[in-house]
């Protein structure tokens, strides 16, 4: 009870801040739970009174400014929701794209203290030079340092978590889970979007971001995958990652080599150095697709600020806090979708959706194939600069409700990342043909996994599985015998609920739902009243 009231107060505070910035987060015509309509009504006076303070300011950045003022966890939530136009609507999703993960840095004394605690030695002992922060985000900040390694001076990047950031995120995530559970409980139409699973996905990614040893391991794993692809093809991939300094890395501190390169967004400097921007765009997109489709492990935050070009012309990625993984099933789905749209085989593409369990079986495959044709045909014959992967994803989202498609949490990061990578590649080469770039990667995956080589490998795996099952047959037979005995006993003695018990259970459920609605409405009214009074008191209105 106390925890529910606390979460309602926290969410009400966020609603007040959004209203102060003029954000209309619940449109009048939208079908949403009653509590959200109540919240919109209670914050309407604040939006009205705050209106003069927003004259002349860009409306598209209102929500970005509001979330930045709410703190680190709301910045991450906003970035996460920017990819979910199906949940928050296209206009709000577009506004959230302006959200920048930048905050003022914490002090040098706090940074030095964090290093001393994490590495069990003062910063002066770990590094020959330790400079001020060069970048500060919601979770961590980065310092430039030098250290002597094997008798030679090395430039290093030292990433340090913000003080008490774990506690702040735990508190706010608890509120997000509370809100998601209530939405699922009281608003049936949103259940297919699985808001609790969406928040859970956000919680898991931020939890991984706050253990920098895991980020170091991600860098190491991706370096091995890149080397593997280079060995297989016999040519360099021209995409690399920094080297990890494991002796100066701990849970709250990560040390890697310092990347000296040109930001991939600085096109003028890249041209002045003689680099081919079209080739760089191809490297970015094809590397991402290779990592996602072949390795099932990809950088999920490949925006322009995390990509550099070194003197050798390699694209170098940094900041591996957010990584994505795809299992064999998801990789096949991705390859089949890309290949199906490229080859216009809509029937097979539709069948893959059903095979993967993304579309419920009560829908006809042919009707879903017709919907995919409506998405795929308009892009045929159009120029490469007219085709957007982001637009295609938006159209797919538009069909999710029609075909009762549930949100697949394992694909959320992939969808977000693909849109970001497309944007980076298109900035480098506006005429980049996404399909020509994707086709060889998808084709190679399908030949390797669905062709002769894949069949041979599956046969070997199948033989191993059969041998394992045969070895377990005696135990399985014993368990089956026990289960049969139990079922016989149940059939003889009976297990049933009488009509009175069923009616009592239904009555108790209705009473619990009424109590929850009353509690939430009362708590929101109390919280909003308190916060509105406080707002009028200090805002000078």
Give the termini separation.
34 Å
Shape label: globular
Average pLDDT, all residues: 77
Number of helices: 22
Secondary structure tally: strands: 10
Query: Largest sheet, order of strands side by side?
Result: 1-2-3-5
Structure description:
The chain is an alpha+beta fold. It contains 22 helices and ten strands. It has helices spanning 2-20, 34-50, 62-70, 72-81, 85-88, 90-96, 108-119, 123-126, 165-186, 195-209, 212-233, 267-272, 277-295, 328-343, 346-355, 365-376, 389-400, 409-428, 434-450, 452-471, 473-493, 499-538; strands at residues 129-136, 140-149, 152-161, 239-240, 253-257, 262-263, 297-299, 307-309, 315-317, 323-325. The strands form three sheets. Strands 1-2-3-5 form a four-stranded antiparallel sheet. It has a four-stranded mixed sheet with strand order 4-9-8-6. The chain has a two-stranded antiparallel sheet with strand order 7-10. Helix 1 (2-20) packs across helix 9, helix 1 (2-20) packs across helix 22 and helix 13 runs antiparallel to helix 18. The longest helix has 40 residues, at 499-538. The chain is globular and about 70 Å long.
Topology:
Blueprint: H1 2-20, H2 34-50, H3 62-70, H4 72-81, H5 85-88, H6 90-96, H7 108-119, H8 123-126, E1 129-136, E2 140-149, E3 152-161, H9 165-186, H10 195-209, H11 212-233, E4 239-240, E5 253-257, E6 262-263, H12 267-272, H13 277-295, E7 297-299, E8 307-309, E9 315-317, E10 323-325, H14 328-343, H15 346-355, H16 365-376, H17 389-400, H18 409-428, H19 434-450, H20 452-471, H21 473-493, H22 499-538
Parallel strand pairs: 4-9
Antiparallel strand pairs: 1-2, 2-3, 3-5, 6-8, 7-10, 8-9
Helix pairs in contact: 1-2, 1-3, 1-9, 1-22, 2-22, 3-4, 9-10, 13-18, 13-19, 14-15, 14-19, 15-16, 16-17, 19-20
